[in-house]
């Protein structure tokens, strides 16, 4: 058994031409290993190929080439075992309106062949906060409750890998926090989590590692810490003890005076020490009341990497 929950090699998918639409190469040879027990971020702009990759993992889309191994099971040789090892929380809340949450979980467990004695319906309902709605029709649930039920359905067969496809899109802060508490608990219990999200601050906070794909190609894969370290740019924010003008600066430092009187200085940390900026400020006769630095955020890394591959 390998140390990877998912192993993808040379994965390609080409959708055939239809009508006036030409053939589309959605995935162009993805190689990706996802470690067991990690929270792994899969990011990319719309149309990058994320949904195609997830649907291949779920067994909903047939790949054109390559291999997919889920929890040690080759998807071609052991399709049932590989599918049983993964749970998918889809982006769209497709639920039967005439089933109750308890009924939906029970039916889903039956589809995976989970014996009645081994089903964890009550436990899952408690986890997702729907115990008091166990016997309510799904059509009466709020949008947030329906998303919780989607998470529950993905867990009925106790998968080793859980894929969350845009799990917090359009939900309120309370539900988002509840989802992340549940995800952390599942991960602490040993489940591997794969997350796609457009909320980059979530990926920055939650993920151990991140892969970014664009136009069907993987353009980077690294730890979240290392990705954030790729941007050399830093900003030093100085609050003077009284209103002052921005001092003259050399070409390697960009400065600005904010409306609240703070002075910001942007520079490359590999070329310019922060002490040089502090010396310039002191030499200008400015007394410093407060100072702090602003680090790069994942959004900046994401934009810089995807923008460089456009066109």
TrEMBL record:
InterPro entries: AAA+_ATPase, ABC_transporter-like_ATP-bd, ABC_transporter-like_CS, ABC_transporter_ATP-binding, P-loop_NTPase. Keywords: ATP-binding, Nucleotide-binding, Transport. GO terms for molecular function: ATP binding. Residues 6-240 form the ABC transporter domain. It comes from the Bacteria. It holds the Pfam family ABC_tran. This is ABC transporter ATP-binding protein.
């Amino acid at each position: 058994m390998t140390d990877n929950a998912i192993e993808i090699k040379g994965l390609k998918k080409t959708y055939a031409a239809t009508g006036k639409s030409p053939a589309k190469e959605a995935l162009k040879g993805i190689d990706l290993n996802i470690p067991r027990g990690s929270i792994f971020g899969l990011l990319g702009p719309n149309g990058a190929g994320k949904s195609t990759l997830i649907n291949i993992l779920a067994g909903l889309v047939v790949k054109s080439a390559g291999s997919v191994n889920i929890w040690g099971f080759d998807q071609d040789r052991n399709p049932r075992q590989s599918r049983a090892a993964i749970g998918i929380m889809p982006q769209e809340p497709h639920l039967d309106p005439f089933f109750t949450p308890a009924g939906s979980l029970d039916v889903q467990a039956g589809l995976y062949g989970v014996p009645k004695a081994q089903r964890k319906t009550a436990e899952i309902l408690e986890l997702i906060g729907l115990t008091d709605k166990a016997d309510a029709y799904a059509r009466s649930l709020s949008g947030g409750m329906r998303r919780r039920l989607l998470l529950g359905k993905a867990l009925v067969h106790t998968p080793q890998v859980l894929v969350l496809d845009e799990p917090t899109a359009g939900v309120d802060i309370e539900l988002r926090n509840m989802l992340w508490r549940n995800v952390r608990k599942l991960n602490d219990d040993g489940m591997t989590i794969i997350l796609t999200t457009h909320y980059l601050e979530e990926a920055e906070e939650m993920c151990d590692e991140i892969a970014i794909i664009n136009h069907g190609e993987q353009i980077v894969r690294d730890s979240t810490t290392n990705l954030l370290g790729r941007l050399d740019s830093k900003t030093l924010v100085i609050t003077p003890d009284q209103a002052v003008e921005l001092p003259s600066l050399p070409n390697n430092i960009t400065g600005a005076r904010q409306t609240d009187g703070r002075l910001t200085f942007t520079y490359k940390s590999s070329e310019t020490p922060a002490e040089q900026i502090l010396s310039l400020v002191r030499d200008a006769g400015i007394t410093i009341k407060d100072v702090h630095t602003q680090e790069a955020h994942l959004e900046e890394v994401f934009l810089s990497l995807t923008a460089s591959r456009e066109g």
